């Protein structure tokens, strides 16, 4: 995961994942513009293993985090110095998640993501929708749907770690470790949606597993 080489920045060609555009509008009689990104909606799943009372996270390299750790002057380099900027700067700890890019029910996509990334085969009736919310409201405003499921060791049927060229590590944390994480002064290498999910779990679910 941290074997990073040949890093450089280039212009964006046509992308199936991100489409930049300018939004033009008149508000209260004043003409305005806003630069936006069209992206896929997504799902995120809080996976808690009740056999060992641990939360299941995924750890992966996120280029967006890595890029924002590079000094603006160094971004102009032909090749980024990965000794000065090691891959560890871009490692994120997140909930299991994925984009909605298939013509399937959202809950089925959530089920597939849990199996592919974490290795747990969760029946659809054990995936509980909690809420949905808008993410990246400054530039994209896509919809993310949040699910919760409880799993056991017996439900672990696959290795996990993603599919195709994904490189994902499965990480487990106890409830005290989660509490320490959300109370950290930061910067926390996790998106706001992950922290929201953890706070939701601590508020609504954690007490029954502390006994």
TrEMBL record:
Keyword Magnesium: yes
InterPro entries: NDP_pyrophosphatase, NUDIX_hydrolase-like_dom_sf, NUDIX_hydrolase_dom
Keywords: Cytoplasm, Hydrolase, Magnesium
Cofactor names: Mg(2+)
Catalysed reactions listed for this entry: UDP-sugar + H2O = UMP + alpha-D-aldose 1-phosphate
Domain Nudix hydrolase, first and last residues per copy: 38-195
Record text on subunit structure and interactions: Homodimer.
General function of this protein: Hydrolyzes UDP-glucose to glucose 1-phosphate and UMP and ADP-ribose to ribose 5-phosphate and AMP. The physiological substrate is probably UDP-glucose. Poor activity on other substrates such as ADP-glucose, CDP-glucose, GDP-glucose and GDP-mannose.
Name this protein carries in UniProt: Uridine diphosphate glucose pyrophosphatase NUDT14
């Amino acid at each position: 995961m941290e074997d990073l080489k040949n890093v450089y920045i280039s212009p964006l060609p046509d992308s199936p994942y991100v489409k930049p555009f300018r939004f033009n509008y008149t508000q209260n009689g004043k003409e305005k513009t806003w630069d936006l990104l069209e992206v896929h909606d997504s799902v995120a799943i809080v996976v808690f293993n009740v056999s060992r009372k641990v939360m299941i996270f995924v750890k992966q390299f996120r280029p967006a985090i890595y890029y924002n750790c590079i000094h603006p002057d160094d971004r102009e380099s032909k090749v980024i110095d990965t000794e000065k900027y090691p891959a560890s700067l871009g490692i994120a700890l997140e909930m299991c998640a994925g984009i909605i890019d298939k013509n399937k029910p959202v809950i089925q996509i959530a089920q597939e993501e849990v199996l592919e990334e974490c290795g747990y085969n969760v029946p659809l009736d054990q995936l509980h929708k909690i809420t949905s919310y808008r993410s990246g409201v400054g530039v994209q405003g896509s919809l993310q749907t949040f699910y919760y499921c409880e799993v056991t060791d017996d439900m672990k049927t696959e290795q996990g770690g993603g599919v195709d060229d994904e490189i994902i590590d499965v990480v487990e944390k106890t409830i005290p470790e989660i509490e320490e994480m959300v109370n950290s002064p930061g910067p926390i290498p996790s998106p706001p949606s992950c922290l929201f999910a953890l706070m939701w779990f601590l508020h609504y679910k954690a007490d029954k597993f502390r006994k």
